[in-house]
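Data card: per-record layout.
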Amino acid sequence: MKHLKIKLLTIALTAVAISSMGQTLNKMNWLNEPQQWEIKDGKTLVMDVPAKTDFWRISHYGFTVDDGPFYYATYGGEFEVKAKISGNYVTTFDQAGLMLRIDHENWIKTGIEYVDGKQNISTVVTHRTSDWSVIQLTDAPKSIWIKAVRRLDAVEIFFSHDDKEYTMIRTCWLQDNCPVMVGLMGACPDGKGFTATFEEFKVTPLADQRRLEWAKRQQSK
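The structure for this 221-residue chain is written out next.
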C-alpha cells in the first residue's frame, strides 16, 4: 500500500514538473514546410501560409487535399495542448490553429477560420471523411487561445480570449493507445497566402486515466 501511494505521488509530481517546463519549438518537424517561416526565441513560430493549401477529405466537396503546413512533435498517451493564435486573415477560409494527427485519414484541426469577413472558431474532424463545425465570434480579436485535451479515446476542444476562462466547443473521437502528431497548422484554400503567428505553444502530458483508475482499485483492496 505504501509503495502504491508513493507511485501515485510520483506520477502527480512528474506531471506538475513537466507542465512547468517551457515548450521549445526548435526540435519539431514539418509536414508540407512553407517557404517562409521563423522561430523567435524558441517560443514563437511565424509562418507565411502558402496560397491554395488546405486539409480536407471528400465530404460535401468531393475532393481530398492534404498540403497545408503543419509543424509538429509526436506524443503518446494523454495530454493537453494549447497555443495562442494570431493571423492577418484576408480571404474566406484562411485558417490557423492546432492539429492532432494520426495519419492522413485520421486528424483534427481547430482554430480560427475566416469566413465572409468574420473570425470563426472552427473544428474539422476527419476519420476517412471530414466534417466541419464553426462558431462565429462577435468580435475580431487580435489573438485567441485554443486548447485540446486528449483523454482515452476522446478529445475535448476549448477556446479562450484571455487564457483564463475557456469555453468548450466540441468533444470528438480519436483513437487511443497510439502516437499522435501534435502541433501548429495553417491553410489558405482560396487566397494568396497570409501570415500566422503561434505563441505559448505547450503540450502537457497527463497521467493515464486507466492507470489511475487501476491504482485506485488496488488501493481500495
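Known properties of this structure: Helices lie at 2-19, 209-220. Residues 119 and 139 are 8 Å apart (CA to CA).

See the next section for split statistics.
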